[in-house]
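hey so u asked for the seq, here:
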Amino acid sequence: MSNDMKIRLFTLPNMLTLANLLSGCAAIIFTLEYHAYETAFWLIIAAAVFDFFDGFVARLLNQQSPLGVQLDSLADDVTFGLAPAVVMYDIYVHSTSYYGLGPEVMEWLKYVVLIIAAFSVLRLAKFNIDTTQSTEFEGLPTPANALMLMSLAVLADAGKVVLYQECILVIAIVASLLLISPIRMFALKFKGFGLKGNELRYGFIVAALALIILVPAYSVLAIIVLYIALSTLRWLFTRRRA
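ran it, structure tokens below
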């Protein structure tokens, strides 16, 4: 193999991608061993930061490569797919049934939450081959889905929300369907810094800041729900006009 065809493994962007992966792995360990959902949540936040900067640094240093693309998807599979699935599984195991269904039934149903991991892989694979998602997304991005589920776990652990086993199953199914839905969701990629063409993005940022100030404990969950709602309304309006 010639020198210009050698695959470079240990580039700075790849190291950032691996930091993303290791953060996801650590979140899984802290969940299963210590049920430390808040620690797992912050590890996923850290992973999202690494996930953002690996692509940014790759473009900045002109180190984009097919290997980096594959690494990014594999890391995201673990961090934003498997980790939130494990967290919801752990929450389910330590919750109770609202309707008092038989323990045998609820014991088997706990495996349903693992579809979060499966649908996250489908979402990431589709993104890799879909050329229409350069300026917006089709379906809920996996990092947003992961943060939504992780924040729910933190709130439940703190007693700020109550999650019965049936609720967890519904949340897992709805979140999984959102991942592969046809809903076009806006990306925070600005077309310059002017207001024209960026009205929705600026409005969303202002609303997000307001939520952080007004309801800090619920802000992550509220911001992602707002993002889903705004994207859905925009998508429906666009389809109606078309």
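The mean pLDDT is 92. The longest strand covers residues 136-138.
lmk if thats what u needed
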